[in-house]
Amino acid sequence: MEKLKIAIQKSGRLSEKSVSILKEAGISMTNGARKLISVSGTYPIEVLYLRDDDIPQYVRDKVADIGIVGENVFAEKGSDIEIVERLGFSRCRMSLAIPKQEKYTGPSWFAGKKIATSYPVILQRYLDAHDVNAEIHEISGSVEIAPGIGLAEGIFDIVSSGSTLISNGLQEVEVVMKSEAVIIGRNDMNQEKRALLNDLLFRIKSVQAATNNKYILLNAPNDKLDEIIDLIPGMKSPTVMPLAESGWSSVHSVLSEDQFWQIINELRALGAQGILVIPIEKMIV
Ligand code: ATP
Ligand code: ZN
To answer: Which residues line ligand 1 (CB under 6 A)?
Structure first.
């Protein structure tokens, strides 16, 4: 039987979430050991633990069928392969930054200057798009110290909170791209692997839908029932059952996480009582 070979980061910011997303999709790895290859007992899959930078190449070379990387790594090294699914975690951005005392005048500020980065491909693409001629100085780590030690006038690097930039006396001047974890793959997978991948994506989407939603139960006064139902339409429509006490109904529905607090407040204002909110483990979408 064919196995789906999936490459994930061996150790780093993506590893824990990558393992847990597979686990929630029913793929348990043999004692979670960080071996090069681990075979799941419950699903025909093989997991390869690699440096994130190497994953696009392994997918291109068919050593792995799919991989989980940051979109930034995909943009830098992912030629000939494609994004199969966005995963929504490890969000960050790729930005240009310059010393904070410099006055920024737009992309042309970088003309003739030296920029330190670990992402020369993305940076060159940006500079070309803006018709800026700058010198790219590729370094593999600690990019943020480059201006301070006179190695470059600006940097292009990953930013999440921006605190690393501030503590190095830098200001963020351009956001070149936003990034999140993605599943990458080739578009020429055989039918059997494609079916395994589709099954895996279905599982992952069900888990993601579940974590983005809550199950809600409440008691509603009947004269406000229509307004309450409008607020929590659920997957199809809410379940409404009469309570033993006349004039009241029990309403069950599904509520998305991002609207959660606002809707709870509106429900209370409409007289809803006994509101219970329960996590959903899997939601088949
Ligand atoms: P490796 O040893 O595997 O090469 P690495 O040092 O290149 O690891 P990490 O720092 O573990 O990589 O980051 C992996 C990915 O996580 C990055 O490519 C990026 O997509 C994302 N990432 C990096 N920094 C942050 C951050 N501060 N916040 C959120 N996501 C981040
Ligand atoms: Zn890396």
So the answer is: 9, 12-14, 51-53, 70, 72-73, 90, 92, 158, 160, 179
Q: Give yes or no for residue 75 having a pLDDT over 70.
A: yes
List domains and CATH numbers for the chain: 4-88+181-210 (3.40.190.10), 92-179 (3.40.190.10), 213-279 (3.30.70.120)
By mean pLDDT, which of 31-40, 69-78, 91-100, 117-126 is the weakest? 31-40
Ligand nearest to the CA of 143: 1
Within 8 A by CB and 6+ apart from 151, the residues are 114, 116, 137, 139, 145
Q: Report whether pLDDT(28) > 80.
A: no
Please tell me the distance between residue 14's alpha carbon and the centre of ligand 1 in angstroms: 7
The owner of tokens 């030629």 is 79
SS3 category, 26: coil
